[in-house]
Amino acid sequence: MRFGLVHRIMTDALAALGLLALVTSGELNRWITAAVVLGLVGALAIPERWQDSKLMRHVGVVAPVGLLALQLGRLVLGAPVLQLAVEFAAGLQVVRLATRRGAAHDQQVVVLALLHLIAGTVLGGGLTYGLCFLGFLIVAPGALVLSHLRREVEGNYRQGARDRTGLPVDVPRILRSRRVIGKQFLLFTCLLSVPIFLFTAILFVMFPRVGLSLLLLNHGRPERMIGFSDKVDLGGVGKLRSDPTIAMRVEPSTLAENPPLRIALYLRGTAFDQYDGRTWSRSVTQRAPADMQGSAVRIRRSPDLARDQKLTIDLEPIDPPVIFLPNDAVAMRLVSRGMTVVGPTTTVLAGPEGEFKYVSIEDRGLRYEVFLAGKNEGPPRPLSGADRARYLTLPPDLPPRVLELAKTWVGNAKTPYAQAAAIEARLRSDYRYDLDSPSGAEKNPLDHFLFESKRGHCEFYSTAMAVLLRTQGIPTRNVTGFVGGTFNRFGRYYAVRQGDAHSWIEVFIDGQGWMRFDPTPPSDAAPQSEITGVLAFMRDFVEAAAQRWNRHIVGYDLKQQVSLFRSVRNRYSSIRGTSKLAESLASPRRAWLFGLGVALIVAGVYWFRRTRQTSDEKKEAPKSDELSVARIVALYRSLESALVVLGVPRPPSVPPWAHAVGLEALGHPAAAEVRALTQLYLEARFGDRELDEDERKAFAERVRALRLLRSAEGEAA
Asked: What is the pLDDT of residues 643-696, one digit of tens each?
């Protein structure tokens, strides 16, 4: 493996991992993310010979200055400082990768990659970051060692150092060499990540969790989901059914061994009482702090742990931050997700129509337990006259044929429940589900849906049923939330996705309270994002791993740390209390067997060390090639001593062959012999020629003759 190629690959890997940690943090918008990824690919594809061109030198100087000026301009215009800093750091890395020349620039790439990894810790910290961190640990030791070696080689070249032959250090030849590093070197440097990882893990677990997150900048970046704001436009619903993003995870307290793969779990978010012919809104918008007792929130009553069933919901950040609850929820309790600051961080607000919202400092979503009502919860609260009037309000421009349609569909049904069931059945059977309904663009979308297009999405169905029942004097309200849930076999929870967003209605029945009706055709309204087979298996695995990472790594807080230490202490105490080693040694036979086992282990260790020592001694024994090289070098040293006697010593800066040629040019009487001996030395030292015993003796005799030549010249003088 070539030294330069391996060094470049490792440096590129570090740069890519650092940029990936930034890109996956979510702080970069789509266009910037695409630019960074394309820039990274382009920079890595540029050949080394192009990077030394005059054009790339200018790019390396001008591009960072231009990027800095651009970010400063955006800062003046009001762009967030954190986002600008992250984008600038990513841009610097792309420019440096494209214009690097030599070890100094490679070390800058490594430093930038490390800064990106640190920034990714603050900004993201998700499962993707964990994979980047693991890859960084594996690659970083080798990349740092190789960067140091290359810097030393280039430093020696700039200082005019020469190799053993007297020639200047040939940097390109060293970078092309396959003898500098090998598989063992790469394996050793990669294995250095093991103790580093263990030390990091121990530090992570043992370091005191003080409960502060004042430096955490990775706020939630929720996507707005239509239907959970204070108003809902009947013609403004997007294609929610194709979005597979997880909105929440629901964990039932009791789960069968083989639970159903999908359930119809209705989770209520917001409700509306006023419809003006196009938009649903609320006539009452005031919110007040919910009735909280510690971390518990009273909805109908306090939780009863003995008889209430429980659901645990892990809600992802949603804007606005609505809390989703089943219809039969009587109470809920907030659960820590870790990374909390000192003091209470989450406030729950109770709004109109049974809505709950939360306000959190962290904005990382919410984890809460929901307590469900039993069978004997008492009679529902009756509806006041003012409230009944609100839930019977009709739009002023409602066409008369809508009222006639309601009477036709109700038919002979006498009770409010029977009338609601009749209208629900007609909508489910006579109309078709369509996300691209043309009715949304009409002046009166409901009238067009009922009599013209007869196709639409869930909000058309819920609106139609709510208005039709109001014409019959039955109070209704429109509800938005989620319905569904796909079982995750690895995490053993039900994943509710944004594609499960839905709209239905609630009908007030005297003596029964608010009852849910869903007029949307069930088969057509199923999410279009469902997958099966291997893809579903892989999706479940990744999503479960991400959940555990967020809960046990990102959310590792003081409570989890104390619980971990307590469990370790209890485990240690139980082992000490239940140890049977002393009892087993009480028997003489067992004691003898135990001693024999210890003796065998000691003997095995001794044998292994002796074998290892013998093997090392054999490895340390000089090889024949090394002996041959040492003898040849000794012969040339004797020639150099003879040259000193002749008065023409070889300067250290002059190569052997150059010195011999120089003597010949000066006309020295021993020049021919010196040149012949030097050529013989170079062929044996760097060529394929091997000198046998006779040739080495002949070489020594000729050197001795050169010494005598100096003595003969002295006697003649």
From this structure: 888 888 888 878 888 888 888 888 888 888 889 989 888 888 777 778 888 888
DSSP state of 550: I
Q: How far apart are CA 489 and CA 496, in angstroms?
A: 14
Q: What is the DSSP letter of 593?
A: H
Residues in contact with 700: Cβ distance below 8 Å, sequence separation at least 6, in sequence order: 635, 638
Q: Evaluate whether 557 touches 211 at the Cβ level (below 8 Å).
A: yes
Short-list 487, 520, 504, 514, CA closest to 268: 504
Are 212 and 342 contacting, i.e. CB atoms less than 8 angstroms apart? Answer: yes
Q: Domain span at residue 708?
A: 624-716
Total domains in the chain come to 4
Structural domain includes residue 561: no
- Where are the extended beta strands (E) located within 147-263? 232-233, 246-252
The secondary structure element, H or E, covering residue 432 is strand 432-433
CA atoms within 13 A on the CB side of 690: 7
Mean pLDDT estimate for the chain:
80
Tell me the whole-structure pTM to 2 decimals.
Answer: 0.64
Q: pLDDT tier at 150 (50, 70, 90 boundaries)?
A: confident
Alpha-carbon gap, residue 288 to 350, rounded angstroms: 5
Bridge partner residues of 488 (DSSP): 493
pLDDT in tens, 220-267: 444 444 446 677 777 554 455 567 888 899 999 888 888 888 888 999
Judge whether 560 and 552 are in contact, CB under 8 Å: yes
Beta-carbon count within 10 A of 693 CB? 8
* Same domain assignment for residues 642 and 605: no
User: What H or E segment, with its residue span, contains residue 536?
Assistant: helix 534-549
Residue 572 is assigned to a structural domain of this protein = no
The answer on 435 and 356 residing in a single domain is yes
For residue 152, the one-letter residue type is E
Single-letter code of the amino acid located at 390: R
Tokens of 94: 């792309």
If asked whether residues 267 and 376 sit together in one domain, one would say yes
Strand partners, 515: 507
Tens digits of residue pLDDT in 523-536: 655 555 566 778 88
Question: Does some domain include residue 571?
Answer: no
198-209 burial, b at 16+ Cβ within 10 Å, e below that, comes to: eeeeeeeeeeeb
Give yes or no: residues 273 and 200 share one domain. Answer: no
| Interval 114-142: pLDDT, tens | 988 888 877 767 778 888 888 888 888 88
DSSP secondary structure code for residue 443 in this structure = S
The domain boundary, picked from 491, 520, 543, lies at 543
d(CA 4, CA 528): 50
Q: Tell me the mean pLDDT in the region 180-187.
A: 77
